[in-house]
Amino acid sequence: MTARPDTAIVLAAGLGKRMRPITDTIPKPLVRIAGKTLLDWGLDSLAAAGVAKAVVNVHYLPEQIVAHVAARRAPKIVISDESDRLLDSAGGIVKALPELGEQPFYILNADTFWIDHGPLNLGRLALAWDAAKMDILLMLADLHQATGHCGSTDFLVAPDGALRRSKGDPAGLIYAGAAIIHPRLFKHASAEPHSLNAYFDKAVAAGRLFGMPMHGHWITVGTPDAIPLAEEAVAGALAEMQ
């Protein structure tokens, strides 16, 4: 049986420009939805899944995030400081690799979160992970279980879970901002600004990008008008579970 990842990185270094004017004074991961910061929604999910250490990368107004996570007991937080230069999603991961180790780890986006319905989605992701045939395993949501998503779909899922780009096909699913990835993918990468999307495409080409549909409700918060919709979705999802 595959061991569950006990390490994660939360990508929290973005500028949050579309969230202005709120992000004029606070970084986007500290925007609150239903009384909890976006960052804490993700960190709480990691803690519930048994993750011992989470790297949080910072760039914009970093001291606020550092101060905010200082009080957390679980998971243990390690800050990866990108104050000097924003490295984008993959560059940020490469910089943090010494803290992430040599085993597969979780990746979470700091501006999306979800309400689990049934077994924890991160636990389900760990159970679905198979390092022998996968380099990346993405958590996926369909359009009907998403709030705040303005775009189209991202991936089509084969019967065995293998993914290919959907190119907007309505039958596709959305990447839900959580994944397990094997660090071997970054073996020859440098900590220069570059996107994780290139690794998704590389894994598709190698037949090693897989996906797992989540259970529950997925929420992304891109603009100030998305906040009340997100809070309504949280209230609705929690009410359904009672």
Structural features, described:
Keywords: Magnesium, Nucleotidyltransferase, Transferase. It comes from Rhizobium loti. InterPro entries: GlmU-like (IPR050065), MobA-like_NTP_Trfase (IPR025877), Nucleotide-diphossugar_trans (IPR029044). It holds the Pfam family NTP_transf_3. One of its GO terms (molecular function) is nucleotidyltransferase activity. By secondary structure, this protein is an alpha/beta fold. The protein has one domain (5-239): Alpha-Beta Complex (Spore Coat Polysaccharide Biosynthesis Protein SpsA, Chain A). The protein is built from 6 helices and 14 strands. The strands form 4 sheets. Strands 5-4-1-6-12-8-13 form a 7-stranded mixed sheet, with helices on both faces. The chain has a 3-stranded mixed sheet with strand order 7-14-9. A two-stranded antiparallel sheet has the order 2-3. A hairpin with a 5-residue loop joins strand 10 (155-157) and strand 11 (163-165). The radius of gyration is 17 Å and the shape is globular. The relative contact order is 0.19. The model has no long low-confidence stretch (mean pLDDT 92).
